[in-house]
Amino acid sequence: MLRRLGTPQKIQDFLNALPANFEMDGQTCLSVREVLRQRRAHCIEGAMLAACALWIHGDPPLLMDMRAERDYDHVVALFRRGRFWGAISKTNPAVLRWRDPVYRSLRELAMSYLHEYANRRNQKTLRSYSQPFDLRRFDPELWVTNRKNCWDIGATLDEAPHTALLTKTQARLLRLRDAMERKADALLEHRRPRKR
Known about the structure:
Elements: H1 8-17, H2 32-38, H3 43-56, E1 62-68, E2 74-81, E3 84-88, E4 99-103, H4 106-111, E5 126-130, E6 133-134, H5 140-143, H6 151-159, E7 162-164, H7 168-173, H8 179-185
Antiparallel strand pairs: 1-2, 1-5, 1-6, 2-3, 3-4, 5-7
Helix pairs in contact: 1-3
């Protein structure tokens, strides 16, 4: 299946079509195999699938963790075209997804998520990003074919050094999202299923 996803754009389209993993039966960190089997994913699960598809097509399987304050982290798969970085992302809201390969640095790429990355109190929460995290450091049995959760991958990525995006003063001066931004963020591709 992943061999058919020959471009980053096709990988992103595939992830967009996958239902969101709402973790109805508890937290998960599904491997690539389990995402394909269960037909659902959240951000790190989608990022690992995207990284694997990129790897099959000759790109290194790279992830970047974006750390937030008073909010959830977000993980994207990285790719380069020439000197420029792009990102593939699985997320239910529209605003934290794909980034075209036009960013000269990882900082520039991470900053492209700053204004849309906000919590329920409408505070902009993105604070730092990791350097490229190469999944080739791990046996594919841990993240590609694992039938259990990939907690080790998530923990190692979370512990990786992160670079600050803002100073404390800059963070204090960030404006809350306005009504239109809140409306845009409410646009979701997949609705949370009702509990059974």
